[in-house]
Amino acid sequence: MKVKTAMHEGVDWVTPDTPVVELAKMMRKQDIGAIPIGENDRLIGMVTDRDIICNGLARDDFTSSDATARDVMTEGIHCCREDDDLAKAMRHMEKVGVRRLPVINRNKRMVGILSLGDISQIAPSDLVTEWARSLSAHHH
User: Fold this and answer.
1) Cβ–Cβ contacts within 10 Å for residue 26, how many?
2) Cα–Cα distance measured from residue 81 to residue 8, given in angstroms and rounded to the nearest whole number
3) CA–CA distance, 138 with 135 (Å, rounded to integer)
4) DSSP secondary structure string, the chain?
5) 102-138 pLDDT, tens per residue?
6) Among 56, 100, 72, which Cα is nearest to 14's?
7) What is the pTM of this model?
């Protein structure tokens, strides 16, 4: 099974100057938990709902009205290719401890996001259960 069959297609990325409030509204409207951040046509990071809380709201010096994606994002991007084997992508997610991976095509253009939720819909349940258990261990 390939990544393409499990990924969430049509994900937009935004610039690092996007206000955090705007990111939160996008997440709610699109029912997603992560938004890729791009600059000069390259992915440079990711903002998750958890980033907004931990790198933003939980900080004493945080002001939501003027905060941008750059203030809360996790820099550096892990990604996989749409034609990668799904099991390989899952192992990569486990190794780097993330629940979502941007998916790129052969031209290094982002074409979607692979998430734990998407995988659990289609992958054999024993594989997902084992994988989710190991990923959850990272967050205790």
Assistant:
1) 15
2) 13
3) 6
4) -BHHHHSEE----B-TTSBHHHHHHHHHHHT-SEEEEEETTEEEEEEEHHHHIIIIITSTT--TTT-BHHHHPEES---EETTSBHHHHHHHHHHHT-SEEEEE-TTS-EEEEEEHHHHHHHS-HHHHHHHHHHHHGGG-
5) 898 888 788 888 988 777 777 666 565 666 666 666 5
6) 72
7) 0.71
